[in-house]
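Example record for the data management plan.
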Amino acid sequence: MTHAHFNPPATPAHPAPQRHRASLARLSFGLAAAPLAWALQTLTGYGLTSQPSDPGAATSHECAPSAILPVLMTLDLAATFLCVVALFVAWRCWTATREEQYGSRAQLLEIGEGRTRFLAMCGMLVSAGFLVASLFTSLVMLISPLCS
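Corresponding structural encoding:
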């Protein structure tokens, strides 16, 4: 009687085999930094410009102090810079993991594999979108007068 050779089943490949190339911190930064920078830019800018120049004024329709303009410009530049950095970090994660699984970018969403490159691609899209939003927020600050 011969003994059949038993081959254990091969372990399935991990769905994100190149996850070591893009750390969770870098992926998270690429996904979250740009929206947070834009939200801080928008909320802080609104808070600064909605205050009247005269603390005793009854309405906020009076002119905001001209000293706010350099603060707003610095805030806008910082938010835009942070959006660019987040886009760059997400792009670097994507270039490190873009060959994680076989298939085109269109198959990326369908097969559910290559999670690291999917998160990196989402980070690029989110960062690019909020970079545009940050630029438009800055543009509005430059076009519209501080006084209503």
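Summary line stored alongside the record: The mean pLDDT is 77.
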